[in-house]
Amino acid sequence: MAADSRAGIPMRRSLLVRLLLTSMAITALSVGATAWLAVETTTRAVQEERGQLLADDTDILRQLSGFAAGHADWDGVRATVLALSRTTDRRIAVTTTAGRVVADSAPAGSALPDRASATIDPLRIDTYTEPGGQLSGIDPRAVGPYALDRQERRFVRKLAEIRLSCMRRHGSDGTLRQGPSGRTVITQDAGDASVPIECADGKLNTPTGTEAAALEELDGLLQACVGTGRSMIGFKIGISLDVISGTSKVPAHDGALPTEGRQKAKDCVDSARRTQLDPFVAPRALLYLGSQNQRLSVFDLSTANKAKIVGVTAAVLALSLALTAGVAVRLVRPLRALTTAALQPPQRHTRVPVTTKDETGLLAAAFNELSARREQLEAQRRAMVSDIAHELRTPLTNIRGWLEATRDGLVDAEPDLIASLHDEALLLQHIIDDLQDLAAVDAGTFELHREPVRADDLVAQVVAAHRGTADAADVDLRSDVRSGLWLDADPVRMRQVLGNLVSNALRHTRAHGSVTLVARPDGDDVVLTVRDTGDGIAPHDLPHVFERFWRAEKSRSRSTGGSGLGLSIVRQFVEAHGGTVSAESTPGVGAVFTVRLPGGPLPESG
Question: Is residue 56 within 8 Å of 90, Cβ to Cβ?
């Protein structure tokens, strides 16, 4: 491919080309994913709809079977059919086995579906589709003559409450539940069907008058079916908890019945119970189910639908490309301007126009700020080189001149001369040490050796070290320290910090003035203050006092001494300790330098 001549970048690496390709890929993937998601979602919805239909069909059959179990005929079932139709949005029709319509949610005269969906017969239900259905296939809601009257229900519930109370006293528990016949039973927790022997009094399982009469009738039907064969002698039906839910147990007298006897007894119980319940349930009926609009809505991925998907994909792709191209061109233009400016010679400090307020505009503004900062740093670097040369030239010139004069025999090497040359050498050493400290800070190799330091000892050492200078200048050097203050600091560097501040204050304080060094607590911090009564600092000079080689004397006079690095070193050392330093001044009144450092823990005794 051809290279982008304006930026010198191959076309394949151009940001514009990459943005376009990325946009195409994202758009194609997003549209394809959307189409797939639509198909998948619709298919899933159809599956869920079919599953819901199956659940609704089962519920419809269950409720209509319950109606049949509680009514001797189908009179009044239309209201139930219409209510179920509204709830499930299904067409529901109930007919007799002969085909006569009993109830239909569709308008009169509507044709029935091709075949019945199920048979409604509460005496012969599907055990797997009817919750609670018995193994005999009898709907548990078909209670017929076993339905207790109001007084019997209260009586049985009272017995159940007494037994439950007894069970709870003996460490068992359960829940009261009323069965379809009205008899209250105890459903025990965790599936534990055992009853403490102290509570098994037999009263709760004793048939009521209504149940006794129904059981007597059932027993007669059963005996007629079983007959009086030798294997069935003593055969008697009783009632238990399972009877309440619709199942009769057939215990044997004096030993278990033979296998063929048990099967015959079971068949006879089923037949007898159906015969007994038949007058109390509605006759068998057929259930027809269908949708209200006669068809299910399914997703049809036809040729026309495929063409629509392809057309929409192409349109979205074209629109995305057009929008991306416009955005990309607008984005690349300022980036190219930034690239051109960045390739200019450093000494030109080129700026770029800020034409937007988006990310590229912020980048252009940041570039301009960086260029301005670089220009400022370059100016500071030049000034610093000039300052270092100036600071080193004067003592070196003095040392060289006096040494040459001594060598030539023009002056004698008297003690005063030697002392003067020694002072000049010390000044050179001081400047070099300060520059070395600042270089270590800039290079990241500066290290602190922290230890617990008493603030009063630190202040006393600094005051003692500068007492001679203060007395010679006729300046009152004093201290005010709160006892018991500790710092977690490097004692050598902190003495250097306070020493630089005190030296600076003494140089700018006239005779009969004072310099006060104060240490006080402020919350968890320790505040060290150096206050003088000197000439002070002009407001426009205060922001620059901690800059390297900065002096208020624009003539750069060395009459007051100092290298111009002391306050810069103070700031670097204090910040390395995690503290802050600030300066305040009123011209003609004096200056105050405040160092705030985190307080340190008391040293461990011993």
Answer: yes
